[in-house]
Amino acid sequence: MRAIILQHTISDGPGYILSWLHEQGFATDICFLYKQDSPLPNVDSASLLIILNGPMSVHDEDQYPWLKKEKELIKQAIEKNIPTLGVCFGAQLIANIYGAKVSPAPHKAIGWFPIKGESTTKKGCFHFPDNFTSLFWHTDEFEIPENATLLASSQICKNQAFQIKKNAIGIQFHPQTTPYLLQGLINSSSLDLTNDLYIQPTQQLLSAPASFFVQTNQLVNDVISYLLIRSKKK
């Protein structure tokens, strides 16, 4: 099994996702898109595609020349029924590819916040827990693409997760967060930690109980396992 990971910044890596993939026996191919000479991988032999977060906007194609080709790669993977998970910016890319609006959110959100799983009667959709807490770290937000299903929401930023087709899920929050990854984000993005309504101070971010990490990391297991199983069903 081979997983492709698209990484957009040095500090925002796969975190727990990488550990879980290795435990499951995946070979991992990490494409560091922020390096100008990093070629996009061929998805044809991939068993899984993971698209990580990044500080850029989905509309910044002039500033980031690889962005247009990345969108083409993601759409190709989804249309070929390759299990695909987009995290934060990765979810925004999936939404943008399928025609949904991506724009600055009313409030920048950085911190540990509650999320609600949305009930749906649509057959074959993933079900998040009724209530859980995960890390937010975003400026933009996405609308739900046509024919996609809302899976999770929050009071701060309504659309937190969606599913499109049977093999692709986009998530606005950061289920892959580990203490090490969180410290790296704080170190590299300290200018983001302003005194705004939904931005928690450094000490509050770092003092999150271990249960927050355990619960949100479990979602990595659940979501990717679901995508792998669903993509094999006709």
Q: What do these coordinates show?
A:
- The structure is a single chain.
- The protein has 234 residues and is of the alpha/beta class.
- It has one domain (2-232): Class I glutamine amidotransferase (GATase) domain (Rossmann fold).
- The chain is built from 6 helices and 9 strands; from the N terminus they run βαββαβαβββββααα.
- It has helices at residues 16-23, 67-79, 89-97, 179-188, 202-206, 210-232, and strands at 2-7, 27-32, 48-51, 84-87, 102-117, 131-142, 149-153, 159-164, 168-171.
- A 9-stranded mixed sheet has the order 2-1-3-4-9-8-7-5-6, sandwiched between helices.
- A hairpin with a 3-residue loop joins β8 (159-164) and β9 (168-171).
Query: What is the CATH architecture term?
Result: 3-Layer(aba) Sandwich
Q: Cα-atom Rg, whole angstroms?
A: 16 Å
- In sequence order, what are the helices and strands, one letter per element? EHEEHEHEEEEEHHH
Strand runs, count: 9
Flag low-confidence runs: none
Domain Glutamine amidotransferase: 43-179
Pfam families: GATase
Organism: Commensalibacter papalotli (ex Servin-Garciduenas et al. 2014)
GO cellular component, one term: cytosol
Defining traits:
single chain, 234 residues, alpha/beta, 29% helix, Glutamine amidotransferase domain-containing protein
Layout of secondary structure:
Elements: E1 2-7, H1 16-23, E2 27-32, E3 48-51, H2 67-79, E4 84-87, H3 89-97, E5 102-117, E6 131-142, E7 149-153, E8 159-164, E9 168-171, H4 179-188, H5 202-206, H6 210-232
Parallel strand pairs: 1-2, 1-3, 3-4, 4-9
Antiparallel strand pairs: 5-6, 5-7, 7-8, 8-9
